[in-house]
Amino acid sequence: MFPKKPPMGFNTWNTFGENISADMIKQTADAMVEKGLVDAGYEYLVIDDCWSKRRRDPETDRIVPDPVKFPNGMKDVSDYVHAKGMKFGMYSCAGVRTCADYPGSFDHEYLDAKTFADYGADFLKYDYCYKPENADGPLLYRKMSMALRSSGRDIMLSACNWGCDDVHKWIRSTGAGMYRSTGDICDNFVSFRDIFLSQLDNFVYSAPGCFNDIDMLTVGMYSQGNVGSTGCTDTEYRLQFSLWCMFAAPLMLGCDVRKINDVTLKLVTNKHLLRINQDEEGRPPFIAKHDGNNQKNIYVRVLSDNQLAIMCTNFTDRDHRAWLPLENIGVPVNVGKGLRLFNVFTGEDEGVCKESLFTQVGAHDCAVYLAEICDA
C-alpha cells in the first residue's frame, strides 16, 4: 500500500497495553465514528501486542487469537471495524517473540501474512524485539513486505525498528508505508520533546509513500494508561500534536477515545492542523530561525496551493517573544511583499506582516500559522 499522506488512526498500546478485548475494540470503533474522528480522517484502528495466545497452534503453526480476549476470533472484530467505514490493523514482530513475549513472525513471515490477510487486516505494525543477533534487520523487513504483497490483500507495512540500523536510509526501499524512528513515547513533556528533536535531521527522508513515524500520540492521556507517566498539560498536548502535524508524522491516537474530552477532541480534529499534516506534497519543514539549541526554533513548511505553514516553538519554561525576519524564508524587504497570516488555533485572519513576524509564545507552547505571500 502506498500512503500518499501520513496515516491517521488509533492504536491500543498507549492506553490499554495487554488489556485489550473484542468489546473494547468495538466500543472504540463506535466512539471514533460517533465523535467525528473517522470523518476527520482517522481511518485505522490498530490492535497492538498481546492479542494472541502464547504459543502457535501445534497443528497449523498459525498464530491464534486469545480466545478469552477475542472469543469470536479476529475476523469478527475486523468485520465490525470495516462495517464502521474504517480500516483494521494488527501487530507482529520481526523477532522470534513479540516485545510482550507472544509469538513473533521470524521464519513465519509468509504464513503470518496470509493469516493477517484472512483476518481482513489492512495494516501491520511490525516490531523488532527478540531478533536473532545474526539476522539481517533490513532483510527481515523486506521479507515481511514481500509476504504481505503475496498475501492476496493490500496490507500496509508499518515498520517499527525504533530507528535502528540507520532505518531512514533504507526503509523506503522495502515498500513500507511508515517507519518508527524512535524509542517508545511516554506521557510526559520531556519524552515527546526529545523524540521530536531526535529526528530533526531525518525528517527530510519522510515523503509520500513512506512517512517517519515518531510514535503514537499521548495527547489526551493525562497520565492514565499503559504509558502513563506524569502526563501533560493541555498546552503541552497542543504543542505535541502541532509538531506531529507540522512534520507530517502519522497521527495515531493513543488516548482512550471512548472518554476523550472536548478540549482534546477539538485539538485532534482541528481542520487547519490536519490540513498541514495531510498536505498532498508532503514536503519537510525547514528551520527558518535557529536559536542555537533547538529550544525556540521557528519552522516553515511549503504547502500546496501556494500556502506556507509557520510554527514557532518554545520548549523552555518561560514565555518567549518570537521574531522571524521574512528574509529568512525568502521574502526580502525591498520586493513589496509580505505574509498574510491565519492563526490555526483561533481561526482568525491576523492581517499582513511585512519585513518581520513577531508573536508571543508561552512556555511549552507554540504558535502556528497558515500564510500566503501577498502584496504589502
CATH class assignment of the largest domain = Alpha Beta
The main β sheet shows up as: 8 strands, parallel
In what range is the share of β-strand residues? 15-25%
- Strand-and-helix sequence, N→C? EHHHEHEHEHEHEEHEEHEHHEEEEEEEE
Q: CATH superfamily of the largest domain, called what?
A: Aldolase class I
Head-to-tail CA distance between termini? 45 Å
Average per-residue pLDDT, rounded, comes to: 98
Please describe what this structure looks like.
By secondary structure, the protein is α/β, with parallel strands linked by helices. It folds into two domains: 8-277, TIM Barrel, CATH 3.20.20.70; 286-375, Immunoglobulin-like, CATH 2.60.40. The chain is 26% helix and 24% strand. The chain has helices at 13-16, 22-34, 37-40, 74-83, 109-119, 137-149, 171-174, 189-198, 234-246, 262-268, 271-277, and strands spanning 8-11, 44-46, 87-93, 123-127, 156-160, 178-180, 187-188, 211-213, 228-231, 251-253, 286-289, 298-302, 308-314, 320-325, 337-343, 349-353, 356-361, 365-375. A hairpin with an 8-residue loop joins strand 11 and strand 12 (298-302). Helix 2 (22-34) packs parallel to helix 4 (74-83), helix 5 crosses helix 6 and helix 9 (234-246) packs parallel to helix 11. It is elongated and about 75 Å long. The model has no long low-confidence stretch (mean pLDDT 98).
Compact overview of the structure:
Helix content is 26%, strand content 24%. It has helices at residues 13-16, 22-34, 37-40, 74-83, 109-119, 137-149, 171-174, 189-198, 234-246, 262-268, 271-277; strands spanning 8-11, 44-46, 87-93, 123-127, 156-160, 178-180, 187-188, 211-213, 228-231, 251-253, 286-289, 298-302, 308-314, 320-325, 337-343, 349-353, 356-361, 365-375. It has an eight-stranded parallel beta sheet. It has a six-stranded antiparallel beta sheet with strand order 11-12-13-18-15-16, covered by helices on one side. A two-stranded parallel ribbon has the order 7-9.
